[in-house]
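Quick one, probably user error.
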């Protein structure tokens, strides 16, 4: 977003969402949204950038691009979730600051959803939970059709085979010191002609801070990759 603002791109502010709960397995909604954007706006070149879970979505969109006739020139995924099971373990056993951040952000989103649709949702049990694992378990059990959390996680675990079947230029940017995305989840992935996996020693989770002004190296890198 910082790079987009500095380059003069107009960012669309979010509006009230649908009545349904969005979760990581609802890839079809994202793909169809991109398809609709491409019908509405006749841009010569179109790109996708995703951070963290958004990076996971970006790479799964890459897998579905040909099926849905998506015209994408370049995809960049920064600190993407490769294996949700491993990421959940890292969050639950790792640095407290990330766990508290995601708990606070998720609970705020649930409160906003319940306030928008009070006739449909009561998330008091979810909001009272003290761990991401417990919240995920309750969400899957009470608000999805998945039989288990494992089934849910498997639905958006990235597959090397599927990643390879695309000719869209793709850059994946990772950090070895990322406390949320274990590099063990990337063991089966390797760089190829159209898929470049780049692992830096430092960067944290979606950070890649380059100076004391807390500016991210990724902003300039995105502009460089796309121009």
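Nope, works fine. Designed sequence:
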């Amino acid at each position: 977003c910082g790079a987009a603002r500095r380059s003069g791109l107009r960012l669309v502010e979010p509006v009230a969402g649908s009545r349904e709960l969005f979760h990581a397995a609802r890839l079809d909604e994202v793909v169809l949204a991109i398809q609709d954007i491409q019908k509405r706006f006749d841009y010569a070149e179109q790109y996708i950038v995703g951070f963290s879970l958004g990076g996971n979505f970006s790479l799964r969109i890459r897998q579905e691009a040909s099926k849905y006739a998506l015209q994408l020139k370049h995809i960049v995924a920064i600190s993407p979730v490769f294996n949700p099971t491993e990421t959940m373990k890292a969050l639950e056993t790792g640095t407290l600051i990330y766990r508290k951040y995601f708990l606070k952000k998720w609970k705020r989103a649930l409160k906003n959803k319940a306030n928008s649709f009070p006739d449909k949702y009561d998330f008091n049990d979810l909001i009272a939970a003290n761990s991401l694992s417990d919240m995920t378990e309750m969400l899957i059990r009470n608000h999805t059709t998945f039989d288990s959390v494992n089934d849910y996680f498997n639905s958006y675990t990235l597959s090397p085979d599927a990643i390879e079947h695309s000719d869209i230029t793709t850059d994946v940017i990772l950090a070895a010191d990322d406390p949320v995305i274990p590099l063990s989840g990337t063991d089966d992935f390797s760089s190829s002609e159209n898929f470049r996996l780049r692992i830096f020693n430092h960067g944290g989770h979606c950070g890649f801070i380059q100076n004391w002004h807390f500016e991210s190296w990724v902003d300039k890198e995105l502009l460089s990759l796309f121009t």
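Residues 45 and 70 are 11 Å apart (CA to CA).
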